[in-house]
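Re: weekly structure request thread

Next one in the queue (584 aa):
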Amino acid sequence: MANENKSSAEAYRERRKKQIAQAAKKSSKYSAARNKAVKIAVTVVSLLIAFSLVAYSAGSLLLNVFGLPQRLITVNTVDGYKITAAEFNYYYSGLYNDIWQYSKTYEEQYASSYGAGMGASLTGYDFNKSPSSQKYVGEDEFDEFGEDATWADYFKVAASRRAYITNYFYEEAMKKEYTLPEDELKAIDKEIDEIRKTANENDFSLKRYLSFLVGEGVNESLFRKLREKDKIALNYQNELSEEYNYSVTEEEIQKLYEENKENYDSVYFRLFAQSFTTEESEDTDAKTKQEAKAIANKMLDEIETYKDFNTLAYKYAPKSDKETYKNDDATAVKNITYTKVSESINKDLADWLFDKDRSVNDKTVILDESGNRYFIACVEKTKTLLQEPTVNVRHILIQFDNKDEQGNEIDLTQDIKNTAKSEIDAIYNEWKDGEKTVDSFAALAETRSEDRGSKENGGLYENVYRGQMVTAFEDWCYDPARKNGDTGIIETSYGYHLMYFVGRNDEPHWKFTARSTIGSQKYSEFIESLYKKAHDSESPNTRFLNYFTARLLENINRSYASSEPAGIGQSITPDTTKAPAETE
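Done, posted below.
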């Protein structure tokens, strides 16, 4: 824990500086992965002609060939910042590729479970369609798009504003003599090397390939400069965001709590649902509404304390669900607020749980008409504001392999558990035989852990609070004797966890959340002011802006003959001749 002589804001600042660095590192990984994901197969005929930009008509031909004009022509001026065509192309392609990739990823993840169209449903963008053929459904803060606006209209406006906002934070960072850490510079080098390798495999020069990937006029030098600018701006943004958190006072936190207790006070309770059907069913476990109510009331009568609850849930669960209730956590709802109960479970239940007269072991049956079920609930802890500090912990998970080839669960045998235990023991021994540091633990988590939610961050969970994790995990973290650097193996229903205790924080979860809420609001208001300034001050060179936008859209629209987005920079010619290597 932090030195007691430090203010909570100072302690918070020290803790979060490490988190900012980790977030920046993670963002760096994402940026490289995102651009690597956008693979392009294109062919062009290279033309070399003398440069002389004497008229727009002549210039339009030359712009198809040389990168230099795009790096000189200003397409928009925002608050005095001149945005070149090349920079506009870079940020336009970034916006387009981001939303395309998000939509496609969501589709791949959820379409098999929820049906086709999940990518468009979750992002508002259909990756199967051109941005110029689908309506923009995002926010329109300045009422500038109109009812018929397309995603292409949005990209055109947003590209200049992203360029301006990035430059603003970059210049502010430079005033404080910011530099990129070595690992982020190496990440850019690696990204460029990967692009160069792909370019060579397709018989393109790096310069020509970059024009397809991120836009006309973007050569290696400019690409590197813009990548470094992006990362420095993002790192400074992260720190500025945290500065707003540091500035939040205890008085502001208390005021927010008093005005929004429903978002912070919490309860612990046990919950079981007895479902019913309103239609005829061949399912032998299906119950009518009357049958379900009778079972719910019978179970209620048998509950003496919340400690009986899980055993009774197992008794009254359908045969197909009984295995679930062998785990005591199956009925536990821990450290949950009124708002969450009301929104995610049932408002009547929330009203009952948070009633001022509620006591431990109070029990009830509540009809959830919309869900065709009766809830049976029993209070474990009444309404309170938990003051325990949160903790930071790393873990490596080896799951029990109790699924068949079709993904169906099978009985968890001792042999299955022994296999998982042997693997986690081997990982533990590997760590103990090595440097035995937090960094070496994180490296093992990235390569060996089966927890997809934390492995990319070295197995790290920050600001863990009571009620967030399963009981065995929490009990290990909140052991009063726990010290920084402690390690150990625990078993949960998920498998075996190799644990590493990073440390306790200085604030309880509710206060950390309140501080972040207030700080985020202040930061958001600042960002909104920058976007308003961009909106009010921009002065586009309409002729060139329209020209380069049309070029970008022309290439994007042609790409929909394939399953992946094409390069943004140039038109795609037929698959006849590959471009000769150019001089960089």
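The chain has 19 helices and eleven strands. The chain has three domains: 17-248+529-559, 265-384, 389-510.
Next request, please.
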